[in-house]
Each structure stands twice: as C-alpha cells, then as structure tokens.
Amino acid sequence: MPDNPRRLDELILQCAQRRETALEELYRLSAPHLFALAVRILRRKDLAEEVLQESFLSIWRNAGRFSAEQSQAMTWMTHIVRNRCIDLLRRPDCERPDPDGVILDSWADEAAGPMERLRSRQDGKRLADCMAQLESKQRMAIALSFFDDLSHGEIASRLNSPLGTIKSWVRRGMERLKRCLS
Q1: How many CA atoms lie within 13 A of 65 on its CB side?
Q2: Per-residue pLDDT band at 101 (split at 50, 70, 90)
C-alpha cells in the first residue's frame, strides 16, 4: 500500500477529470494490495485478475463519486473490489476449488493478516484483546464471518461443523465481545 493515502485521494480526483496518467499511477500504487485481497476472497488468480480489471474500470467510471470526507481512497477501492468478488462468488456458475487451501497458501503474501492489522491499530487494540479472550472456535467462526465475509453455512462447511453449532459459536462469541467491550 502507498505510504501517502492523500496521494490516492488526489489520483482518484484526477481520474474524475479523466487523466489517464492518474489511473496508471493509481493502479501501480494500489493494484498489488487489491489483487491480494481478490485472491484471498476468490482463491483463484484468474478470477482475481478479472475482478481487478473490472474494479479499475468501475473506479475510473465512478471517480467523480468519490469523497475523501466520507472514506479513505483505499477503503473505497477495497469496497469496490470486495463487492465485485462477492458478486462473482454468488454467480451460480462460479467454481470454488481448493477445499484444502493449497492454492490459497501458495498465493499467500507476507502482508499482515486481519488480526495482525487489527492489533497494530491503536483503535482496534481493545477489540483484538477481547477477541483473544474468546475460545478458539468462537474466534475462528467470528473471524471467518467478518474478515472473510462468509455466511454461517459457508463457515459450517469450512470448519466441518453443524450449522447450529456455528450459529451458537458466533452468537455466544459476539455476546462475550459485547460484554468485554462495554
């Protein structure tokens, strides 16, 4: 990710003015992060490349709608990529190979995962501490739900556990988090 988030804001505003060089620099600065996100969600490089291309077309077309007061540029672009990935996964013809995670592991980067990023932020320190107090099964179910945006059914398949059990883990874990944070 770029060191200067304001630079991304500037580039998106220049994209709104249809400056192609701004799109090129925006792509160069943000594509590695956005591609890694797409690969983590889709678990396929070819689909991630497709989503990244579609996302940058959307960023180009909708740059005029971006507001730096409402969100950071990387957050806005991440939201676009994430939504494209979810739309692709919801297509009935979308294949999802890699049940044992071999492909995902081969594409894993050295970037910090969601929990590491959460701990590194001062505003998330308290939440990370509360998450650490949960039972591992509850923590895993909540993490899959919120960080990977999986449904209860998808979590049940991933963890090879009954759906009712997953729902209980998430519900009880969320109750414990709420108590811990209050």
Answers
A1: 8
A2: low
Q: Which two tokens stand for residue 26?
A: 């925006």
Confidence at 153, pLDDT banded by 50, 70, 90: confident
User: Do 2 and 30 contact (CB within 8 A), yes or no?
Assistant: yes
Q: Under a CB-based contact definition with an 8 Å cutoff, are residues 104 and 98 in contact?
A: yes
**Mean per-residue pLDDT for 8-32?**
92
Pairwise CA distance, residues 138 & 149, whole Å: 15
Please tell me the predicted confidence (pLDDT) of residue 103.
Answer: 47
Residues in CB range of 42: below 8 A, 6 or more apart = 48, 51, 85, 88, 89
Distance CA 112, CA 70 (A): 26
- Please report the domains of the chain, with CATH numbers, ordered by start residue: 1-109 (1.10.1740.10), 112-182 (1.10.10.10)
Give the pTM: 0.51
